[in-house]
Amino acid sequence: FPGVAHFHTIRVNMPSGWFYTSDALRTICDVWDRHGSGLTNMHGSTGDIILLGTTTDELEPTFKELTDNGFDLGGSGSAVRTPSCCVGPARCEWACYDTLHFTNDLTQAFQDEMHRPAFPYKFKFKCSGCPNDCVAAVARADMSVIGTWRDEIQIDQDEVKAAADAGLNIHRDVCGNCPTKCISWDGEQLDIDDKNCVKCMHCINTMPKALRPGKDRGATIMLGAKAPIV
């Protein structure tokens, strides 16, 4: 089968939050049309741009043209994998730290470990701006950086009342679904025992106009991988 004698895959380091200009996407596609199959995967499970299928003699020319246009290779195999993050403060009001700049700093600091593996096994960094964890950092990374807060959840009692008046069953859908039962509602006022709050985000997601993360924001760093959620 000479047509599939070579079928190399190239992983390209993606920008933080997967923000591209149309010119950048066109450049990648043009490079790949010249040197490979033209097939892409946007994106791989780690987050990289995946360029599917080329021959051995096209690997170095592809890499050169990508780097000439400001792109770099992503991590694969027993190495540091390309750090990835959610859209963070660029698009999300729940972001508790700047995932975009932090992930870019991680990438710059560990780029050498992606190209010249120094670790004995793969190592994944994933960064989520809040406990909603939109990049599944807790489930899929060896080091997860999850945005959180240290003070009280911000409550707008007028918006709580408006949600109740609009038909939201706060007893059932908010208080009843709180994992630590730290929320109470007497029909007039919502109270949260913040010392027992585990920051699951359920109440905030259910009443986004009424509740917001606290003002004293930062991140929790968790080390140690776990099996993916099936």
Describe the protein:
This is Dissimilatory sulfite reductase alpha subunit. This protein is of the alpha+beta class. The protein has three domains: 2-69, Alpha-Beta Plaits, CATH 3.30.70.2500; 80-150 and 216-223, 2-Layer Sandwich (Sulfite Reductase Hemoprotein, domain 1); 154-212, Alpha-Beta Plaits, CATH 3.30.70.20. It contains seven helices and eleven strands. The strands form four sheets. A four-stranded mixed β-sheet has the order 4-5-6-11. The chain has a three-stranded antiparallel β-sheet with strand order 1-3-2, with helices on one face. α4 links the parallel β5 (125-128) and β6 (143-149). α1 (22-35) runs antiparallel to α2 (59-68). The longest helix has 17 residues, at 99-115. The chain is elongated, with a radius of gyration of 22 Å. The mean pLDDT is 91.
Tell me the radius of gyration: 22 Å
Q: How would the global form be characterised?
A: elongated
What's the mean pLDDT score? 91
Count of DSSP strands: 11
The CATH homologous superfamily of the largest domain is called Sulfite Reductase Hemoprotein, domain 1
What number of structural domains do the residues give? 3
CATH topology of the largest domain: Sulfite Reductase Hemoprotein, domain 1
Would you list the SSEs in sequence order as H and E?
Answer: EHEEHEHEHEEHHEEHEE
Major beta sheet summary: 4 strands, mixed
Tell me which CATH architecture of the largest domain applies here. 2-Layer Sandwich
CATH structural class of the largest domain: Alpha Beta
**Intertermini distance:** 36 Å
Which strands sit side by side, in order, in the main sheet?
4-5-6-11
